[in-house]
Amino acid sequence: MSLSYTWSRRLGIGSLLALLVLTIGFATAGTRRALKTITSEIEQLTEAKDEFACIGHDFLAATSHFFGMIVTEDVSVADDVIECLDCVRESASALRRMAVTEQGLASLEEIERAERQFRTAFYAYKTSDLSDPARDVATAARDRISRLAREALARATQHQERVSREIDAAMSKAEASLRRQVMLLWCGAGFIALIGVVISIALGQALSRPLQAILHGTGELGRGRLDHRIQNDHHDIVGRLAEGVNRMAVRIEQDQRTLASAKDQAEQATKAKSEFLANMSHEIRTPMTAILGFAENLLESDSTEADRLSAVHTIRRNGEYLLGIINDILDLSKIEAGKMMVEYIRCEPCQLVAEVVSLVRPRASAKGLDFNVEVLGAIPETIQSDPTRLRQMLINLIGNSIKFTSSGAIRLVVRLLDSEDPQLQFDVVDTGRGMNDEQLGKLFQPFTQADSSTTRRFGGTGLGLAISRRLSRLLGGDIVVAETGIGIGTTFRLTVRTGSLDGVAMLDDPLSAMLIPAKDNVESGPKIVDLRDCKILLAEDGPDNQALISHVLRKAGAEVTVVENGQLAVETALAALHRRRAGDPDHPFDVILMDMQMPVMDGYEATGLLRQKGFSTPIIALTAHAMEGDRAKCIRCGCDDYATKPIDRKKLIAMVLVHTRTEALEAAV
User: Fold this and answer.
1) Whether 370 contacts 412, CB under 8 Å
2) What is the mean pLDDT of residues 635-643?
3) Among 12, 9, 8, which Cα is nearest to 20's?
4) Across residues 100-129, what is the average pLDDT?
């Protein structure tokens, strides 16, 4: 009996323990399934949060590209804006494929609506008249896009807070699920001995303690304490859940900092662009006032010949100033896009300095300033550099010194820095107003000047020094302020790499080699070029440009036929070619001047169509597009040469002459 009782007791205890183990096993399995489900939900919420963060980033990127397009008027940036908006649309599609909550779908619908509004505003700007100096369309678009960017950032922040609340809810769900499993454990082990109760209590405490820590941590995150981390020493699924919440907190904190930084940068960029546009408006309207005013003076019947001549010179001078502003903006845009190219050719620094001096000395003399050139030591007879860009930098530095110096003198000091990598150094020293530390900090920034009073008193766009410094670095050197101080003047130091000096002669007396020509007070008139027997087809839609260009060509002796769009150009050119083939004694056109931006059919399409039909007459592109790559685009479509507006009449006539002579030589062969 005792043996039977013993075994029965053991069997009973074993059965109870087996039932306890099964109960614990079922409860643990249920808990794991519940926690796995909650972990999956949290991962999905994290993925959805990442997609919303990408949407905010793409909105900010589209805004940045849009403002870059407003400043540079580079329509090619439109592709970048559309690409960012397409990324927003792709992220929205990805979110729709997720099992997001109703609130998430509501946020998604708001973002999709914002994307459509953004795209509509952008296309409205893109198709508007960009020639308006007031930039009303750009201002309206900028304000609307800034509002959309702020709203997108606010929605992203709200979504992050909503994600935290959803995680809190998920944790609560996990706790409820755990409590249900614990209750099942209690019910299953209630009829078991006290040990089952003790085990279940211990198990419940062991599991609820880390979950309480997770719940507390998520609560802290929901209240905005993104630096809070859950203390975790577990390696099971609860530990992985705690690690996941910590990683999520780190990513939210990083995204929050990124969004805040992007917002600050966008606001600073908006402010800088607004100030630049206001400054540009002033700089453009000032010469335009003179141009329009003196143009009206030319219409007055009582004006003398001297008054008319003075008005013409004033209009030309202000027009050249406007063209200089446009060239500065184009140079800066090419430099920032990494498309500015410099050439390295052999040039004579002495002759280059002489040319610069001949250009700037009259300006210094007009202000009563002395201008002197000093050369310290021997300098090479030739260097390997870009003479055009070097001349541009020197003229800009010396011009700035003349502008900001009211009395005293300007000195240009040249020396050779002999080392393993020799450089030529140019110091521009003035006795002007000088600068303080705050003004120095703004000196080489695009679109800014030393202070607001500088713009009011002296004008300018604030682009010259920024462009010059970047050009100097492309040429292996730099531009720095060597010395300055309020009331003592400023010394700008320009250095450029000379290239190898092996076999290059050194000039011990460089000043004698600087043959500075005297500048004539009266400009010589254009040389007479004979374009007789030259038939030219001019395709140009602007009436004023038609009159101007045809007048220049006819004055040179050419016979000019004018059409107003590309379709008429194709029809006229092919008709003239057909008459020659039919035995008409009149020969067809010798050259076509093709405006590339025309109604009905533009110049690119017209040129391509003529080439497809076997038309071999030279075609010269005549366009106001002067950005990097525009020349290559014209050549690819079939043009033989490329001329920009405003036209240089001498260069245009010479270009026509070169192509008509080439055509005549080929016909003779």
Assistant:
1) no
2) 92
3) 12
4) 75
User: Nearest to residue 538, comparing CAs of 631, 615, 652, 648?
Assistant: 652
Place of tokens 């963060």: 53
Place of tokens 């000043």: 511
SS3 annotation, 372-415? EEEEECCEECCEEECHHHHHHHHHHHHHHHHHCCCCCEEEEEEE
pLDDT band at 267 (very low <50, low <70, confident <90, very high): confident
| pLDDT over 70 (residue 557) | yes
- Tell me how far apart the terminal alpha carbons of the chain are, to the nearest angstrom: 133
- Predicted confidence at residue 238, as pLDDT, reads 65
Say what the pLDDT of residue 491 is: 93
Which DSSP string do the residues of 155-187 spell out, in sequence order? Answer: HHHHHHHHHHHHHHHHHHHHHHHHHHHHHHHHH
- What are 492's two structure tokens? 């700008």
The answer to whether residue 606 scores a pLDDT higher than 90 is yes
The secondary structure of residue 556, as a DSSP letter, is T
* Residue 666 pLDDT exceeds 50: no
Which burial class, exposed, middle or buried, applies to 611 when counting CB atoms under 10 A from its CB (0-12, 13-18, 19+)? middle
DSSP annotation of 593 reads E
Comparison of pLDDT for 477 and 199, the residue scoring more: 477
Task: Judge contact between 357 and 402, C-beta under 8 A.
Answer: no
Residue 357 structure tokens: 């001096």
- The count of other CB atoms within 10 Å of the CB of residue 650 is 12
Q: β-strands 535-539, 591-595: how paired?
A: parallel
How far are the Cα atoms of 460, 486, 488 from residue 433, in angstroms, in the given order? 17, 6, 7
How buried is residue 307: exposed, middle or buried, by Cβ count under 10 Å (0-12/13-18/19+)? middle
d(CA 474, CA 344): 11
Torsion of CA 502, 504, 509, 514, to 10 degrees: -130
Q: Cα separations (Å) of 84 from 116, 118, 122, 152?
A: 13, 11, 12, 14
Please check the confidence at residue 664 and state whether its pLDDT lies above 50: no
Task: Pick the closest to residue 27 from 259, 183, 258 (CA basis).
Answer: 183
Positive or negative, the Cα torsion across 493, 494, 497, 503?
A: negative
Report yes or no: 427 and 493 within 8 Å, Cβ to Cβ: yes
CA 363 to chain centre: 35
Per-residue model confidence (pLDDT) at position 43? 73
Tens of pLDDT, residue by residue over 268-321, are 767 766 666 666 666 677 677 778 777 877 887 777 888 888 888 888 877 877
Tokens of 320: 């050249």
Asked whether the CA dihedral 318, 319, 320, 323 is positive or negative, the reply is positive
CA pair distance 466, 472, nearest whole angstrom: 10
Q: Is 14 left (phi over 0), alpha (psi -120 to 50) or beta?
A: alpha
> What pTM did the predictor assign?
0.45
The two tokens of residue 369 are 């300033």
- pLDDT for 185 equals 60
- Rg over CA atoms, the chain: 38
Q: How confident is the model at residue 5 (pLDDT cuts 50, 70, 90)?
A: very low
Question: Which of the pair, 3 or 149, is modelled with greater confidence?
Answer: 149
Spatial separation of the C-alpha atoms in residues 7 and 24, rounded to whole Å? 25
- pLDDT reported for residue 663: 46
Locate 20 and state its tokens.
Answer: 């306890």
Q: Considering only CA atoms, which of 550, 649, 540 is closest in space to residue 603? A: 540
Q: Mean pLDDT across the chain, nearest whole number?
A: 76
What are the backbone dihedrals phi and psi of residue 585, each rounded to the nearest 5 degrees, phi first?
A: -65, -25
